[in-house]
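Our collaborator T.R. sent over the components below with a one-line note: 'Predict the complex.' Nothing else. No constraints on interfaces, no templates requested, no preferences about which chain binds where. So this is a plain run: every listed entity goes in together, and whatever single assembly comes back becomes the starting point for the next discussion.
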Amino acid sequence: MAIRNERVTMQDVARDANVSIATVSRVINKNYNVNEKTRDRVLKSMEKLSFLPNSIARSLKINSTSTIGFVVSDISNTYHISIARAVEDVIEKHNLNMTVCSTGNDKERELTYLKLLMSQNIAGLILNTTGKNNDFILEMNKYIPIILLNRRIDSPGFVGDLVGTDNLDSSYKLTEQLLKMGHRRILVVHGSLELSNGLERYNGYVQAMKDYGIDVGEDYPYQFNSGFTLEGGYQAVEYMRRLPQKPTAVFTQNNMSTIGVLRACKEYNINAPEDISMVAYDTIDNLNLMTTRPTVASYNTHSMGYNAGMAILERIKDPRIPNREFIEQSEIITGNAVGILMK
Amino acid sequence: MAIRNERVTMQDVARDANVSIATVSRVINKNYNVNEKTRDRVLKSMEKLSFLPNSIARSLKINSTSTIGFVVSDISNTYHISIARAVEDVIEKHNLNMTVCSTGNDKERELTYLKLLMSQNIAGLILNTTGKNNDFILEMNKYIPIILLNRRIDSPGFVGDLVGTDNLDSSYKLTEQLLKMGHRRILVVHGSLELSNGLERYNGYVQAMKDYGIDVGEDYPYQFNSGFTLEGGYQAVEYMRRLPQKPTAVFTQNNMSTIGVLRACKEYNINAPEDISMVAYDTIDNLNLMTTRPTVASYNTHSMGYNAGMAILERIKDPRIPNREFIEQSEIITGNAVGILMK
DNA sequence: AAAATAATTGTAAACGTTTTCTTTTTTTAA
DNA sequence: TTAAAAAAAGAAAACGTTTACAATTATTTT
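Returned assembly:
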């Protein structure tokens, strides 16, 4: 039992079929002319010895691999994983597979992973970046095609595509819905404003508020940075409870913070829409089975993953495609957690 | 812009530092004696040229890689992904990363993936098998350490560990809870009985029923094979509605079919516990935010992932550890969807 | 039937590392 | 001061493929 080392190589097949390894290579890679009889003989030997080509050796020679990297803040976030799943379905058809990595939005961890992947010479990269390793990413980008997920890299040097959502628009729409229903004190639970998606969503809120005559300045009390985390959402509710004048609505700007808010509200017995109204960017799993359903901007993650998968395939084939953007439009799904505010 | 090929190699570093590539290799791999001054010089050259070692070449030489394979029926299943996440945390500390694959319980797709991974010479494999490729898995097992996830391979030839749950026990307990509350017509929504976990869970149910004097034979009407899928769960409800004598309770034996049942019940306006009681194997995400909460057998997926990660690391280091089993015990969480049946 | 061409196969170098075996240099022991 | 031992560094082979080039064999043309 246990581990052996002597795998079957092309050498063995060649010997068995009484040809040179070049010929074996040619039947493996189909494309060359090789006599039908010898091909059959080689095929038979491969079968007989249950030969599997060594991708490592092949990769070294041809300078490319058959795996793509999928690097996101948290792979267990249902939003990311369902995109990943769709990517997988696309690339699997081309005999590629996928290495997934969770950075936890940590600069060092992202860098470690990116270096590892670059060492491994991945064929392509789908990246939801922390935004803190742009120099390395640009360097990496010289060798490896990159598709950005949700977060932009604003550098003229970057060449690749972006797959994202209509941050500003949907954020505006969600805020507007609350405003139309009479809400004015709307707590926005945003993410890092140093990330393009965080900032755009925040700006959508600010713009809508401004359009309704409300100025969101530095010391405006109805904003809380959750870092797009579950804990952050939870803390937002605790922050809210301490406010002298409570907000009448809360707008969580990503799925994790929405869950955090929902849990905290459940715990503190804050009911929606009686005590507070809720809207949220991103949907959450099994929303329609839940007691409290915020109005959400829902995205077709399957489509996003499909786009990302196709884009990376195209870019692997031809790395000099001009930069593109695939922006997914939201579907606003009305929940039961939004109420009209009587002034 | 675009893609270049001329990466920095050890050759370049050696030239810059005015040493041989052997020396460069030695400073990279620390372990050898190399003069401090020359080490510094080499280190400086590496820095200056921003050298990254080529893992492919290294792997070819040392005959092992730094990625482990994670092959499951569906990576987007929250149960699997949260195990994967915990595995990632363990192996990342050892500078390993993880290739994930979804087989969809399809024999061919599993085989394709396994061959691809074997070609890529992965360091280890964590596998939730379809159960239909045992021959190849045993062959693969000669070269690559394997940790089985939830599904056994009953072959004396297999060497590796199992990380799983206490299928029979928890299934028995859940069934018993219903029986104690007076339920007798309990629809079991099981999975494939050809898979060890499917069979064990089913047997737990059968045993409990038998202990309460109910014989579950071939033509016993209160059983439905969902294949552990969402659609299967949904169909189970449709099947249930067609039964002349309705069951008073339903026991879904995995998380996907539970969600399917919940959705179908919502759609057909079947309420719990008034119309039907519900217990379920596996928990589901955000259960405590949901309207209808079955009593569930919940598992600590973090612990399972940790065990799987540690086990694979240990087996990579020493492949001839005797077979082990890491069986996770459930926590039964009582929901609001179970009612006492008045006879 | 010979020459020209096309099809098939083989030889050997290369990909970028690691590592064994030598060789050179430095240090220690006498 | 020299011999012996230890430390440091280099040369070259090897890992298992691909592929340019050369060599051989088969086919076509005249």
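Summary for T.R.: Chain A is about 45% helix and 15% strand.
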